[in-house]
């Protein structure tokens, strides 16, 4: 099963080898539990381990393999980030996609050797979403052939870039490019920030950390201001866009090619989110198979809480989602790599499809992941609330994905633009022009679903029902938009009056895509034992998801209320059928205890002994009497006693 999850036996077994190798190297392990450390201690500890990784990486992984590096980082550094997180997640991808060969020779090679540390500085105090209104300006000075970077007011300060605050000495900075008074929109520049020897900020740079956050606190998200700071013309990233010495601007082959680092993260983060969801579910499912509370048969001992249908309903549909997401994530990464290669040859035809797909997936997957993690926490009762479970940290890190790389409700609108265009083609009788991801919009719906009438409910009927729902909502939302426009609203006003419905269409389209990706993967499985278990999980998934969106199919009679009952019964059937495999389904992700960092979710299942040992190790228990008691509580009680006398 691990080979299914990790798209092949090769990587699944490499993960095992890497974990086994690390198990023998205590210097790579957390020196104490992360929840017992201050932010400064965590950053120090993470930097220590990062240095070890850089020194010994070649002995443990093939450094050119992204997935091996990712696993090494998960084991050693963990999810709370590290001082070079953005270096790998965005700085290197931005240089790879946007720097010219000559620039790559100069900077990318140094970045890969870790001679310099970089980040991606785009968001500002006043603007994150609306890139066209960024306020940092890069004005071209023809005389000196330099760009002058400047922060004209406080809202123009860069704000949020990860590892900008304290760690990075370079950044890919996004600024509005002005040449001879003309605004050429957001462009990307390679900018030195700190002296390479002293790490002191360079003259003209104001820089620092933005303070603690909900989670992800090992990362020093930062602020950055420029005071008429000069960089050479050749620091504009020039793989696709160019500015000649005389200020002539050479247009890129696609207007949004500069957004590639964002599309890179959106493509990869689907897998990252699936893994975080699987972390939380591993912890909650293992714990639920140890925790006994209450009885189902009063003549029998207390049961494991995992026997309760409510607990199964709380956890198993999310287990199915974690599988669905990791399968969809693998497809997305393949598409991204393909588009990256095609862009190299000047073919930008798939950029819009990739952008639409990743915008929708990013939004739906992060939202459902956060929901699933929070349910996993609650499924652990009181112990879920303790940082010993580590689920609160997993939640805090994962939920950031709802905001970063484009706020979810905004990104759903990007997909909606694509859907509306497609709906326009359907309306104009040009369905043959629809791309493969939206071809179903042009198909004709059956009048009712046959979900309960096929002898062995296959997935085709479910897919047809999801298609019906997504098609109906897309056409309806587009109609609403066109209707407002026909009545005289501008497109922007009409859009704003239709966005709740448009975003619903985007979610339904994306959920259909996820179901289809799951079906595609299960169809490929050759081993009959695996196929059976994955088919059960997929059946659970389609019934759960369909129930969640059934209102759309009930309102036009596509589904009847008796079919709804059928779907519910199927759901309950598969909850019970999956129960014996539940622990194996989470164990199949093969997370080591070191990677999970959860006292509650350890493989040995010795929950109570482990919790007691953890609590005793808490910094507060180092002494029996805290200074706060000596200083305040004892005098308080003493004075209360004295006043009574
Ligand atoms: C297999 C390996 C396993 C390893 C697994 C690895 C797992 C690793 C996991 C995770 C790592 C994650 C760690 C992340 C750490 C945190 C990082 C956080 C970093 C950041 O947040 S950086 C800042 C991100 N900021 C944003 O995302 C801003 C959001 N805003 C925008 O993107 C844009 O402004 C906008 C898209 C919303 C709008 O742009 P605008 O220029 O105004 O364009 P529009 O007018 O709306 O659209 C015009 C037209 O362009 C099309 N378009 C827009 N963007 C793109 C694009 N990128 N590509 C193609 N086309 C695009 C748009 O659709 C319109 O088209 P149309 O006119 O409709 O045809
Ligand atoms: C953990 C984390 C790490 C980050 N790392 C980086 C980084 O490394 N580099 C970097 O540059 N940035 C980074 N960011 C910033 C991040 O990319 C932005 O916060 C994000 O893009 C959202 O933008 P915003 O903060 O401006 O939100 P806003 O756009 O102000 O959103 C506020 C609200 O307004 C709504 N809204 C905004 N515009 C519209 C619209 N057009 N239609 C409808 N509703 C709208 C949103 O839906 C939301 O409800 C990070 C953020 C976080 C949380």
From TrEMBL:
BP GO terms, sorted: ascaroside biosynthetic process; fatty acid beta-oxidation using acyl-CoA oxidase; lipid homeostasis
Residue ranges that the Swiss-Prot or TrEMBL entry lists as coiled coil: none
The Acyl-CoA oxidase C-alpha1 domain, residue ranges: 259-420
Cell compartment(s), UniProt: Peroxisome
Active site residues according to the UniProt entry: 405
Key words, A-Z: ATP-binding, FAD, Fatty acid metabolism, Flavoprotein, Lipid metabolism, Nucleotide-binding, Oxidoreductase, Peroxisome
Keyword Hydrolase appears in the UniProt entry: no
Record GO terms (molecular function): acyl-CoA oxidase activity; ATP binding; FAD binding; fatty acid binding
Acyl-coenzyme A oxidase N-terminal domain location: 1-117
Gene3D superfamilies with a match to the protein in the record: Acyl-CoA dehydrogenase/oxidase, N-terminal domain, Butyryl-CoA Dehydrogenase, subunit A, domain 2, Butyryl-CoA Dehydrogenase, subunit A, domain 3
Domain of life: Eukaryota
Pathway entry: Lipid metabolism; peroxisomal fatty acid beta-oxidation
One GO cellular component term noted in the UniProt record for this chain: peroxisome
Positions annotated to bind FAD: 123, 162
Principal location class: other
Required co-factors: FAD
Domain named Acyl-CoA oxidase C-terminal: residues: 460-638
Cross-referenced InterPro entries: ACOX_C_alpha1, Acyl-CoA_ox_N, Acyl-CoA_Oxase/DH_mid-dom_sf, Acyl-CoA_oxidase, Acyl-CoA_oxidase_C, AcylCo_DH-like_C, AcylCoA_DH/ox_N_sf, AcylCoA_DH/oxidase_NM_dom_sf
Family: Belongs to the acyl-CoA oxidase family.
Protein name from the UniProt record: Acyl-coenzyme A oxidase
Organism: Caenorhabditis japonica
């Amino acid at each position: 099963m691990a080979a299914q999850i990790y798209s092949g036996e090769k990587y699944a077994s490499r993960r095992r080898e890497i974990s086994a190798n690390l198990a023998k190297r205590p210097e790579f392990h957390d020196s104490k539990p992360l929840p017992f450390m201050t932010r400064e201690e965590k950053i120090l500890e993470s930097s220590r381990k990062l240095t070890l990784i850089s020194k010994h990486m070649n002995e443990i992984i093939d450094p050119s393999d992204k997935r091996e590096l990712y696993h090494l980082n998960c084991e050693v550094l963990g999810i709370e980030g590290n001082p070079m997180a953005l270096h790998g997640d965005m700085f290197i991808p931005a240089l790879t996609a946007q720097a010219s060969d000559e620039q790559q020779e100069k900077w990318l090679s140094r970045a890969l050797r870790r001679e310099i540390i970089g980040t991606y500085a785009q968001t500002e105090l006043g603007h994150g979403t609306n890139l066209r209104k960024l306020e940092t300006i890069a004005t071209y000075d023809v005389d000196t052939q330099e760009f002058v970077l400047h922060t004209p007011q406080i809202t123009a300060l860069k704000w949020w870039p990860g590892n900008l605050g304290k760690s990075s000495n370079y950044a890919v900075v996004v600024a509005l490019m002005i040449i001879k008074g003309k605004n050429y929109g957001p462009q990307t520049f390679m900018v030195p920030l700190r002296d390479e020897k002293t790490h002191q900020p360079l003259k003209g740079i104001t820089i620092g950390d933005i303070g603690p956050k909900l989670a992800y606190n090992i990362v020093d998200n930062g602020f950055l201001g420029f005071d008429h700071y000069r960089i050479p013309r050749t620091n504009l990233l020039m793989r696709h866009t160019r500015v000649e010495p005389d200020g002539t601007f050479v247009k890129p082959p696609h207007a949004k090619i500069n957004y590639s680092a964002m599309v890179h993260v959106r493509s990869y983060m689907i897998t990252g989110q699936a893994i975080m969801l699987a972390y939380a579910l591993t912890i909650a499912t293992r714990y639920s198979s140890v925790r006994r509370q209450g009885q189902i048969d009063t003549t029998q001992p207390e049961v494991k809480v995992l026997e309760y249908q409510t607990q199964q309903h709380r956890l198993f549909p999310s287990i199915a989602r974690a599988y669905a997401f990791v399968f969809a994530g693998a497809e997305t990464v393949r598409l991204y790599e393909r588009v990256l290669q095609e862009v190299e040859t000047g073919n930008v035809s798939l950029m819009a499809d990739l952008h639409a797909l990743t915008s929708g997936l990013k939004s739906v997957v992060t939202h459902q992941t956060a929901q699933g993690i929070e349910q996993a926490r609650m499924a652990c009762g009181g112990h879920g609330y303790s940082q010993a479970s580590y689920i609160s940290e997993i939640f805090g890190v994962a939920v950031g994905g709802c905001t970063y790389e484009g706020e979810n409700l905004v990104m759903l609108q990007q997909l909606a633009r694509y859907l509306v265009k497609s709906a326009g083609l359907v309306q104009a009788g040009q369905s043959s022009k629809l791309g493969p991801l939206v071809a179903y919009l042009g198909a004709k719906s059956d009048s009712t679903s046959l979900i309960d009438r096929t002898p062995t409910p296959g997935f085709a009927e479910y897919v047809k029902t999801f298609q019906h729902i997504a098609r109906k909502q897309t056409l309806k939302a587009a109609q609403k938009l066109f209707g407002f426009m026909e009545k005289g609203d501008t497109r922007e006003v009409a859009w704003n009056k239709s966005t709740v419905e448009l975003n619903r269409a985007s979610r339904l389209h994306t959920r259909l895509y996820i179901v289809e990706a799951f079906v595609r993967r299960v169809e490929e499985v050759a081993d009959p034992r695996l196929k059976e278990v994955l088919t059960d999980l997929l059946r659970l998934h389609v019934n759960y998801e369909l129930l969640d969106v059934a209102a759309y199919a009930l309102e036009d009679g596509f589904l009847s209320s008796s079919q709804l009952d059928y779907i519910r019964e199927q759901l309950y059937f598969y909850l019970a059928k999956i129960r014996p495999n539940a622990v194996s389904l989470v164990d199949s992700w093969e997370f080591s205890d070191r990677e999970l960092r959860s006292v509650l979710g350890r493989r040995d299942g010795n929950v109570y002994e482990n919790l007691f040992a953890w609590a005793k190790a808490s910094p507060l228990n180092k002494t029996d009497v805290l200074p706060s008691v000596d200083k305040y509580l004892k005098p308080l009680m003493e004075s209360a006693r004295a006043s009574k006398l």
